[in-house]
């Protein structure tokens, strides 16, 4: 049976629990291509700069190109904190002048991986 790992207490760092971090933004009309191009340029070197990053991708909503997600997968909380800082659960990582593209602040969510065993 799969086991869901609950959120850890503050101050306790988890090792060995893969974390998926999703930052979603809603863009102003007409800036979609510029934003995605800039985001890709800024994050392309992240896997070599942050050893605990397992993979990452930029997702553009198929039905509304103004909705964009940056999704990154981390080996554990230690790796994620090395990237995003001690307030990684609540503080998104942004780039300079990002707010000019956005209609509202970034929405930040974290998910833990649940192993699926095949019988």
Automatic annotation (TrEMBL):
Listed InterPro entries: ABM_dom (IPR007138), Dimeric_a/b-barrel (IPR011008)
Keyword terms of this UniProt record: Monooxygenase, Oxidoreductase
Membrane-traversing stretches: none
SUPFAM superfamilies: Dimeric alpha+beta barrel (SSF54909)
GO molecular function, a single term: monooxygenase activity
Ranges where the ABM domain occurs: 18-83
Superkingdom, natural source: Bacteria
Protein name per its UniProtKB record: Antibiotic biosynthesis monooxygenase
Organism phylogeny: Bacteria, Bacillati, Actinomycetota, Actinomycetes, Micrococcales
